[in-house]
Amino acid sequence: MSELAELLSVDDKRALEFFAQRLSDVSGPQVDRMQLIYNASVLAHYAQVSTSAEAEFPAPATLSAVFDHFVTDTTLLSDRSMMETAGAQCLVLSGFFQDQMRRRHNIDWYARLGAGFFIRSAYFEPSQAKAKLLYKISKNFEPWRQRHALLSRELRDTPYLLKPPS
Questions:
Q1: What DSSP letter does each residue of 23-81 carry, written as one string?
Q2: Whole-angstrom Cα distance, residue 141 to residue 35?
Q3: 91 and 145 in contact (C-beta within 8 Å)?
């Protein structure tokens, strides 16, 4: 693999490390480490999933897609995994993509919806530790959403993170 190809390749671990470091930078030392890692993993996941993925659940292109899939289909309301996915999608789209979504969507409404999805997921989660984490994410949804938005802006303002080989 060439140096440039190696520099540009991203695997799950590198994506998680990238987002964990940058979220930590915008969050400060006072944030809960487990919530930070969870949020970094959400961003890393959606950074690597296409909106037209066929092999796995595709990333939504807009908050309307989240509404259509998770709100109008009431059969998913007691599915902990689907509720966690819905919460994560609301978090990414209303947070990291806030500036793009706010033109067409009520960000505050989707933030409340996303927090509610995480609460539902926590309620149905059999693992007490994960349920506690999901509950904390729901209660801290707005601060995390704002951190995602801040990180997105900072990344747009710093377009040259990779240094070209000399």
A1: HHHHH-TTS-HHHHHHHHHHHHHHHS--TT-SSSPPPPSSHHHHIIIIIS-GGGTT-HH
A2: 10
A3: yes
User: 8 or 128: which carries more pLDDT confidence?
Assistant: 128
- CA-to-CA separations, 11 to 110, 129, 151, in angstroms, rounded: 30, 27, 20
| Span 3-42, pLDDT tens digits | 655 555 567 888 899 999 999 999 988 999 999 999 999 9
**How far is the C-alpha of 123 from the C-alpha of 127, rounded, in Å?**
10
User: What is the domain extent for residue 46?
Assistant: 11-157
DSSP letter at 127 equals -
The number of distinct structural domains making up the chain is 1
pTM, two decimals, is 0.86
- The answer to the question of residue 164 being in a domain is no
Asked if residue 91 is part of any domain, the answer here is yes
pLDDT in tens, 35-74: 999 999 999 998 887 776 666 667 788 898 888 888 888 8
Judge whether 166 lies within some domain.
no
